[in-house]
């Protein structure tokens, strides 16, 4: 297996994320909402596994988030997500949109929120709107 070169991570061996783990297609940016970093916690679990990963997203929007993760996953993998806000928890399914190595033990993921109840999505939009003020 050969390592792919990525200028942003020129000092990192990307052989572990070659192929299905990394979306290298042009114009990967597909966001429809402004993203905001907050004191919000995400709990992420993988279907069929008992471990729950907790972390703060480095940015958050009504349609997705970016989070660092201690486990490699592939683009299009599905996860269960709980967005823990000050007054409400929002649960939904998520999909990995992109993967980038942070170091040898952590990866950054783009998560797309899927199958979120419309009321909960509206609540998240309102929460993020208040946080931007």
Structure description:
The protein has one helix spanning 118-132, and strands at residues 41-45, 52-55, 59-61, 64-69, 78-84, 89-101, 107-114. It is mainly beta and 133 residues long. It has a single domain (11-22, 35-127), classed as Thrombin, subunit H, CATH 2.40.10. The protein is globular. The model is unreliable at 1-37 (pLDDT under 50).
List keywords for this structure.
133 residues; mainly beta; Thrombin, subunit H
What would you say the CATH architecture is? Beta Barrel
Low-confidence runs: 1-37
Q: Radius of gyration in whole Å, from Cα?
A: 15 Å
Overall pLDDT confidence: 76
Number of strands: 7
Give the biggest sheet.
7 strands, antiparallel
Our count of domains comes out at 1
Can you tell me the CATH superfamily?
predicted glycosyltransferase like domains
Shape assignment:
globular
CATH topology: Thrombin, subunit H
What's the CATH first level? Answer: Mainly Beta
Element string (H = helix, E = strand): EEEEEEEH
Strand content: 25-35%
Derived from helix and strand composition plus strand pairing, the structural class reads mainly beta
End-to-end CA span: 49 Å
Which strands sit side by side, in order, in the main sheet? 2-1-5-6-7-4-3
Count the DSSP helices: 1
